[in-house]
Amino acid sequence: MPNVQVRNNSHRTLKDATCTPKVNLMFMKTHKTASSTLMNILLRFGEKHQLKFALPDGRNDFFYPSSFFRTQVKSYQPGLCYNVICNHMRFNAPEVEKLLPPDTVFFTILRDPADLFESSFHYYKGYMPQTWMIPGENQMEEFLKHPNRYFNPTGFNSFYLKNLQFFDFGFENNLEKDDPRVKEGIEYIEKQFQLVLLSDHFEESLILLKDALCWTMDDLVFFKLNARNATSVSRMSPELRTRAREWNGADWRLYQHFNATFWARVKAYGRSRMEEQVKELRRRNAEMEAICIDGGRAVGASDIMDRDMKPWQPIGKASILGYNLRNNIEQQYEELCRKMLTPEIQYLTNLGVNLWVTRLWGWFKDNFVRFGFS
């Protein structure tokens, strides 16, 4: 295993000064949960410390929505051991565990199912034929008012429309919230993962992750990646949020459970200490924004000058924002800035993944698919 040295840091506690940074990591990358931003943090940490990644082969995920198998790993050979897994997969614990050391830290991230449903519905609309004929200007609202009228559980990509988080963890997504298998699934996740973060409280989540992994604040600096343009986000009334949570009942129970454990961890960490750490993280991020980002903010795809900085777009609308690098960045920050701003597809390519399947689909999507979804 790599020899990772703990640097001196005036903000460290006694525990921080004596612990050793964790380098064996399994991040269960869930969909539409700020997981691409967290993945960028992990990729940078792994590169910095020369860790061995278990990467997919041919595409940017492990053949999702199929269940994960270790043979999907690029250049897999029996007996190989890895430090980090962090790409999208449909979780399969026995197969994952065979790739990683016994002391690996398993962690993941969740999101309020109402917000996740809104994001998933719009992002994946072009990939879900059963949504194409929903009438009215607000198709999501119409769907949530009459979900059983439009939802086909056996339809193509139907998992994007119901309990997507529960599905990501390898469970049946059409279970109702009171089904005993939902409770069993939550208990299973709790046993498998030492830490469950919340994208709704992303900065606090990173501080808890820092504490659990014995990392430094420098390891956590980030820019939001794969974020949507504000004009493409639908506002949800309290009634519609309630409908979304009820429709995604298994995900809502999952989220409620780990929302409680999350805030218990924050309380144990110390509220005032957490506030100080979040404030420091925001200060560091603001410094990096001033150093790295031209104009200091994210921009639409058409305004991104460097092709290598352009993020993947869903079918029908270029709603995902990206960044322009500042010119004349100080040499000491140039590499870090570029890596912090590099979208997932390009970052994986830089790591040596041949994304021929992903790129073929992207070419087909951009040149032949013209549904004009909003």
Automatic annotation (TrEMBL):
GO terms for biological process: galactosylceramide biosynthetic process; myelination. It is a single-pass type II membrane protein. It comes from the Eukaryota. Pfam families: Gal-3-0_sulfotr. One of its GO terms (cellular component) is Golgi membrane. The keyword Membrane applies. Its main location: Golgi. It is found in: Golgi apparatus membrane. This is Galactosylceramide sulfotransferase-like protein. The lineage of its organism: Eukaryota, Metazoa, Chordata, Craniata, Vertebrata.
